[in-house]
């Protein structure tokens, strides 16, 4: 029941981000900056400590190696699949540009699916870890909805097509959560799973959200929002630890 509620929240968060992209053009960088801090914060303040705790005696070097592997796996996915951040060259044929937008939106949907699996696996490892990961993923899904809308529109797609892809992206994390109902993570592998997801989150924040928030915008405010996002996640993790969640 709890995972169903979380999946619904991820759906609403992604959809809300896509719809907001219609209206807030001058303030989206602040939202993305906050999301970046939140996603990186959950990696360093929650997932990595959790990976050490559930690592079944594995040393810190081994845990960090799995984190690095997670980072590199996500990098390969981001580089091998068509980029959703590509600019539109002047004079490029209309059909080619439109296809780039669709492929970019599909990449974002894949990212959202992986976010859903992160929620599902983390919640089964520990309710407290699952709660914090859910908060971070919801902020990321919100920005994913924004990016999905923008990648279609900037590549000359119409609003109807953009809304369809935002809907698909909103369903993707719910599908990822549902997928974890069909497999389980052994107790001795829980630390490795958390370390891998930490690598995923570090890549998403540092390579995607931070550059996107800084692009053509004042860096002081976006930097402040990124720090605020990390601080909020740190406070949430500490509160969860002391509250015995």
Topology:
Layout: H1 2-20, H2 28-53, H3 60-80, H4 94-125, H5 127-154, H6 159-179, H7 190-214, H8 219-243
Explained architecture:
This protein has 245 residues and is mainly alpha-helical. The chain has one domain (2-243). The chain is built from 8 helices and no strands. It is globular and about 55 Å long. The model is unreliable at 83-88 and 90-97 (pLDDT under 50).
Question: What's the count of strands?
Answer: 0
* Estimated helix fraction: over 70%
Sketch the topology as an H/E string, one letter per element: HHHHHHHH
Q: List low-confidence stretches.
A: 83-88, 90-97
How would you describe this structure in keywords?
245 residues, mainly alpha, 8 helices, 80% helix, globular
In short:
The protein is mainly alpha-helical and 245 residues long.
